[in-house]
Amino acid sequence: MKLSHIEHIGIAVNSLEESIPYYEKVLGLKCYAIEEVKDQKVKTAFFKIGTTKIELLESTDPEGPIGKFIEKRGQGMHHMAFAVDGIENALQEAEEKGIRLIDKNPRKGAEGLDIAFLHPKSTFGVLTEFCEDRNK
Ligand code: ZN
Q1: What is the Å distance from ligand 1's center to 78 Cα?
Q2: pLDDT of residue 109
Q3: Does pLDDT of 136 surpass 80?
Q4: Separation of 104 CA from ligand 1 center, angstroms?
Q5: What distance in angstroms lies between residue 42's CA and the mean position of ligand 1's atoms?
Q6: How far is the CA of 26 from the centre of ligand 1 (A)?
Q7: The CATH number of the domain where 52 resides is what?
Q8: What is the layout of strands, in order, in the sheet containing 114-118?
Q9: What's the CA-to-centroid distance between 98 and ligand 1, angstroms?
Q10: CA-to-CA distance for 112 and 104, rounded, in angstroms?
């Protein structure tokens, strides 16, 4: 498979409103987009650093994936996303190599990217996302 860079790091937070000032006023980054992803029951805020983004994730539903994550483990790093060329092939290759997939087929994520997750039980505890920007 062909990974080009870390596309983003996803961080679960209780509140975008409370956490954005840390990234802006302490780290000096700029929030350039806020977007709700209904499918994943989250509101996201994006920052850019080099070619990598930081994606803050606030749950919009306690039963959603981020709501459950925070309840179990508290706020903090939630996942790491690699930019990949040919997401279907990458998923197939990972599965052939014995990795458990959460998404067998890509779905639409924030910013119109095609995304799919690998199960953290197969990836040494890091929830891993592949994403591909086919709008380029
Ligand atoms: Zn992500």
Answers
A1: 9
A2: 84
A3: no
A4: 16
A5: 11
A6: 23
A7: 3.10.180.10
A8: 33-37, 42-49, 52-59, 2-13, 76-85, 128-132, 114-118, 107-108
A9: 22
A10: 18
**Distance from the Cα of residue 31 to its chain's centroid:** 16
Task: Look up the pTM and report it.
Answer: 0.91
Residue of 74, 82, 25 lying closest to 53 (CA atoms):
82
What total number of domains does the chain contain? 1
Q: In the beta sheet, which residues pair with residue 44?
A: 35, 57
Q: Which domain holds residue 88?
A: 3-132
Ligand 1 centroid distance, CA of 9 (Å): 7
Average pLDDT, stretch 18-45?
A: 96
Q: What's the CA-to-centroid distance between 94 and ligand 1, angstroms?
A: 18
